[in-house]
Write a structure and sequence with these properties.
Blueprint (H helix, E strand, L loop, with lengths): L6 H11 L2 H10 L2 H15 L2 H7 L4 H34 L5 H9 L1 H26 L1 H4 L19 H7 L6 H12 L9 E6 L6 H9 L2 H6 L2 E8 L4 H13 L8 H12 L4 E8 L4 H10 L8 E6 L2 H6 L6 E2 L5 H12 L9 H14 L3 H11 L5 H8 L12 H11 L3 H9 L9 E2 H11 L11 H14 L4 E3 L9 E3 L2 H11 L3 E4 L12 E4 L16 E4 L6 H9 L6 E4 L4 H6 L8 E3 L20 E3 L21 E3 L9 E2 L13 E3 L3 H6 L5 E2 L12 E6 L6 H4 L10 E7 L10 H13 L9 E5 L8 H4 L3 H4 L5 E5 L6 E2 L10 E5 L6 E2 L14 E5 L25 E5 L3 H8 L7 E5 L19 E5 L19 E5 L19 E5 L2 H6 L8 H4 L4 E4 L1
Parallel strand pairs: 1-4, 1-5, 2-3, 3-4, 9-10, 10-11, 11-12, 12-13, 13-14, 14-15, 17-19, 19-20, 20-21, 21-22, 22-24, 23-25, 24-26, 26-27, 27-28, 28-29, 29-30, 30-31, 31-32
Antiparallel strand pairs: 6-8, 7-8, 16-18
Helix pairs in contact: 1-3, 1-5, 2-3, 3-7, 5-7, 10-11, 13-14, 13-15, 17-18, 17-19, 18-20, 19-21, 21-25, 22-24, 22-25, 23-24
């Protein structure tokens, strides 16, 4: 496959060479003429790149020319970055210098030496580029303009509709056949039986397995279902861990095989389970035998469902007759293609395209992935020439061979906007089946300079998001759900798409594994995800990305290796050694630095010399407790990720000078006593937030009990329009009876200064120490002040008596109160405004004195209707409040009542909750009866009654609950006896319920 043309880096260089910064650099260092010559030559080369890309497909000589060009433009990029970094260092270091000191700097030997060295480098690079340019005439290249239109302007806004309308075609029969195999009797087999789905890549084996896994008949038959993605590494230990994790929904530590086996047996014995092993490549019979032996023997009809591309793999599993998935039929293929290539009914307007389209569909040979890829390429393209160009593409006829799918997938790559091509190829750096987070990937693209805004005020992250969406809507990524991931949306690349990325990136990207013997000379991006001997032949090479997801034992060798990669733009290092961290300070080109999960207590002070750093990740650095000095020098910092850095107890002074900062998930206010003990540290207060108006997403402010109103006034949260989630945690301030009153007033003053911008969507307040909420929360116009607020949570606000008038908020969907022991009512507001017009979830826990709801002088029994309320949870509240809220919503789906001490019976109005699906009654010790009208709850599917000792019987209306599939009774002595199977007096009322659990 042809070389990737360096469009992006060439355009970046031309933009840089024409900038005021480079003009200034040329004057300062006396290289203005050389830089102008470099710009002219590069412009000449850039003009022929489009033609060079086309010619290299058929000319080896042109491909070699492209390689030479790539080498020199990478070196030129490093050169200009060296200049820009030195200039940035000079400007930041000059801040504290006098005029005389600045003059000394320019006449210093260091400056002269740098100027001399760089002058020689420019001449050498310019000569190499001249040699490349001189060869242009040999190939008769035709000049063409590289489009600089941002990729986002060329995408279809209706792509999301294609995703919604995408349907699975032609697999219903396959699904039924596999389900029949899974649930058929296996009594004649002693061991766990298996069904293996086999088919070539792109046929939808995983999709078919997912359809089976989520089928209701399968769910009813198997008590436990587990899904494990195996991919190409069949590590028995990891496979068992993933199986156990899927079974328990809990993290699994570093257990031995023996311990894993015991845990698996504990969780699987006696259960009929389904284990899906998706994407199996293992051909080692010994490994498979070891895995299957460690699973418990089964006599209940448990099954393994596996997917693989190889019948050889199926044979290793002991299956000689696997379930073979074939391509779609012609009519099914056309139905799928039509739904992707045309708007609904649009094909009738273009009969000529229908004829061509059906020919294209035949060429796809029933492979769904290929059909989807080409369908999306042609969507919204009505010119016949586009369709004919694909119909006449010779590569499509080679689908039957092993590697020919890549030729088809290459079509989707070739149709990408130029700016997206290098972004996609970069993804080859991630291993197959790896989780990809959009935010992280965009940050990496930024570090490489791949993102080009259309104007200087356009945010790089916003443009990067558009790039990502462009790849997502073209099926280069697939969104996935991860149970243990809570840091934004997660995505994966299909194996075939990953293969495509690797074939395009070729020798520029490598994932080091134990079987890699040689490393290409032109490597630029490298990842090592497992212990691997450090590649000595890489040292000193222009590696731009390094992922080293482990820490070796030889920290001196690791330090030497890392420090040699001086042109790195992005680095992810897992190391516990301070000496290794110290080696990073030599990497002045770094834009992205991820040190997450490290055990170090302090970052080296010299890390602030990394002037170019945009992203600094310190997630889960649990021991980190001290910031480096002079954080203000990181003037390009945009993302500081410090989630789960539990020992950090303060924020550094000078952080507020990083005015480009967008991500700051946590801000901790240091206590006065802590400041006194650590006077040598530069500790910043809330005023550091003053100029950080680009902050986005989530901001947690902890330790507000230590804050003073004077510094809180400087935070100016009201000006941060991109913040979506604000969490305010007071914590324990160490107050005494003597200081209690003053601290309560101080808390109110601090809170008064923390008013958020109207764009805020989520507000969390915890351990607030004030006796009242600030004025901005208590006004009648709260609906205008916080019109977009969707979620509110308040916890442990122990001194509050009056709640804000949240009922008027027009967008509020989720409201939770947790332990507000003194709260009595919600503040009144204009009756002309609606009351909780959009609320869907209401959770009230431990507010025993809440007497009024909504208006001070209106009894709780007059609580208004909640039209959209679906989830209601009431615990440790007054009986009157409980009874008034139970029947206020015609849309209620889930109701939980707990610890309502005086509750004797539920109201007859319960009959109106026709949409209720789950009802839980917990620890209501005086509850004596349930109303017979419970039989009107026709949608009820689950009923739980726990710790209700005085409930002696179930109502006769229970027999009418025909949709009820689970009844759970726990610690209800009389009720347990009456519901005993066959003999209990209430058994006739509940005998129709499939799943009855009595503890």
């Amino acid at each position: 496959m042809a070389e990737q043309i360096p469009y992006g880096i060439t355009q970046n260089l031309l933009t840089m060479l024409g900038s005021n910064l480079v003009h200034e650099i040329g004057l300062i260092y006396g290289v203005r003429g050389e830089l102008r010559k470099l710009e002219n030559t590069l412009s000449t080369v850039a003009a022929v790149l489009l033609d060079a890309e086309e010619q290299q497909e058929s000319s080896h000589a042109v491909a070699v020319w492209v390689k030479r060009l790539k080498d020199v433009v990478y070196d030129a990029d490093d050169l200009l970055d060296d200049f820009a970094t030195e200039e940035l260092r000079r400007k930041t270091d000059d801040r504290g210098r006098s005029a005389g000191q600045v003059s000394d700097f320019f006449s210093s030997s260091n400056h002269l030496a740098f100027r001399f060295k760089m002058g020689h480098r420019i001449k050498a690079i310019r000569k190499r580029l001249d040699d490349v340019a001189n060869d242009i005439s040999k190939f008769n290249f035709i000049s063409g303009v590289i489009s600089d239109v941002p990729a986002s302007k060329r995408w279809r806004e209706t792509c999301s509709l294609v995703e919604k309308s995408h349907k699975i075609v032609g697999r219903e029969e396959n699904k039924k056949g596999i389900i029949e195999l899974l649930i058929q009797s296996s009594s004649s087999q002693e061991n766990l039986s298996m069904v293996v789905i086999v088919g070539m890549g792109g046929l939808g084996k995983t999709t078919l397995a997912q359809l089976v896994f989520n089928d209701q008949e399968v769910a009813n038959y198997f008590g436990l279902k587990m899904w494990v993605c195996v991919s190409d590494d069949f590590d028995v230990g990891e496979l068992l861990k993933n199986t156990l994790r899927s079974a328990t929904n809990e993290d699994v530590g570093n257990l031995s095989l023996e311990e894993l086996q015991k845990h698996l047996h504990k969780n699987l014995n006696g259960k009929r389970y389904l284990l899906v092993l998706d994407d199996v490549w293992n051909e080692d019979k010994k490994k498979w035998g070891q895995f299957i032996t460690l699973l418990p023997e089964d006599e209940n009809g448990s099954k393994i469902l596996a997917t693989t591309r190889s019948t050889r793999v199926a044979s290793v599993m002991g299956i000689d007759s696997p379930y073979i998935v074939k391509g779609l039929k012609d009519d099914e293929s056309w139905e799928l293609f039509k739904s992707l290539a045309f708007k609904k009914g649009e094909e009738q307007m273009h009969p000529n395209l229908v004829v061509i389209g059906k020919e294209i569909v035949k060429m796809c040979k029933g492979v769904p992935l290929v059909i989807e890829t080409i369908g999306r390429i042609l969507y919204f393209k009505t010119q016949e020439s586009h369709w004919l160009s694909i119909k006449n593409n010779e590569n499509l006829v080679l689908l039957g061979d092993k590697n020919d799918i890549l030729s088809v997938l290459r079509l989707s790559y070739d149709n990408l906007p130029i700016l997206l091509k290098r972004c996609f190829a970069y993804c080859a750096l991630f291993p197959k089946d790896d989780i990809i987070r959009k935010k992280e990937l965009v940050q990496l693209w930024m570090a490489q300079g791949y993102i080009q805004p259309s104007h200087e005020n356009e945010c790089l992250e916003d443009v990067g998001d558009e790039y990502f969406e462009g790849l997502l809507t073209r099926s280069f990524f697939q969104e996935v759900e991860e149970k243990h991931v809570n840091r934004g949306h997660c995505y994966k690349m299909h194996d075939l798409i990953h293969d495509l990325a690797q074939s395009i990136a070729k020798s520029e990207v490598i994932i080091l594994t134990g079987d890699v013997k040689t490393i290409p000379k032109r490597i630029h991006h490298m990842s090592m995800f497992r212990p691997h001997q450090l590649p000595q032949d890489v040292m000193g090479k222009p590696i731009r990305t390094l992922f080293m997801e482990y820490h070796g034992d030889d920290h001196y060798e690791t330090k030497r290796f890392i420090s040699s990669l001086k042109y790195s733009r992005a680095m992810k290092v897992r190391s516990n050694y301070g000496t290794v961290l110290a080696s990073l300070v030599k990497l002045s080109h770094l834009r992205y630095l991820d040190l997450s999960y490290g055990y170090f207590e302090k970052l080296p002070n010299a890390i602030t010399t990394l002037k170019n750093v945009q992203t600094l990740k310190l997630v889960s650095c649990y021991n980190l407790k001290e910031w480096p000095r002079n954080m203000e020098k990181l003037i390009n910092l945009r993302h500081l990720e410090i989630d789960k850095c539990d020992r950090l107890s303060y924020m550094p002074r000078g952080l507020g000078e990083s005015t480009k900062l967008q991500t700051l998930p946590l801000f901790r206010v240091g206590s006065d006593s802590w400041r006194c003990r650590h006077r040598r540290m530069k500790i910043g207060g809330l005023s550091e937030l003053k100029f950080l108006n680009d902050l986005r997403g989530k901001l947690i402010i902890e330790g507000l009990a230590h804050a003073r109103s004077s510094e809180a006034e400087g935070a100016i949260l009201e000006g941060k329009q991109n913040l979506e989630c604000l969490r305010l945690h007071w914590g324990w301030g160490g107050s005494t009876e003597a200081t209690k009153e003053s601290e309560e007033e101080e808390a109110v003053s601090v809170m008064e200064s923390l008013q958020p911008h109207p764009n805020i969507k989520e507000l969390f307040i915890q351990e607030y120490g004030g006796v009242r909420f600030p004025n901005w929360m208590m006004i009648d116009g709260l609906d205008l002040l916080l019109p977009k607020l969707v979620r509110i949570e308040m916890r442990f606000c122990s001194r509050i008596r009056v709640l804000p008038p949240f009922g008027q908020l027009p967008s509020l969907q989720y409201l939770q109160f947790w332990t507000l022991p003194d709260a009595e009512y919600m503040k009144d507001y204009s009756p002309a405004k609606p009351f909780f017009p959009t609320l869907k979830t209401l959770k009230i826990y431990n507010i025993p004195n809440l007497k009024g709801w909504g208006m001070k002088n209106v009894a709780v029994k007059q609580a208004p209707l909640y039209s959209y309320l679906e989830d209601l949870q009431l615990e440790l509240v007054r009986m009157e409040l409980c009874l008034s809220l139970i029947c206020v919503s015609p849309s209620l789906k889930s109701l939980e009542i707990a610890d309502v001490e005086d509750l004797i019976s539920l109201p007859q109005g319960l009959r109106h909750l026709s949409t209720l699906q789950t009802l839980s009654i917990m620890a209501c010790k005086n509850l004596a009866s349930l109303p017979d009208s419970i039989g009107c709850l026709t949608s009820l599917t689950e009923l739980k009654i726990h710790l209700c000792p005085r409930l002696t019987s179930l109502p006769k209306g229970m027999r009418f609950l025909r949709n009820l599939h689970t009844l759970e009774i726990y610690s209800c002595l009389y009720l347990s006896d009456r519901c005993r199977k066959g003999t209990g007096e209430d058994w006739p009322q509940i005998s129709h319920i499939p799943n009855i659990i009595i503890h």
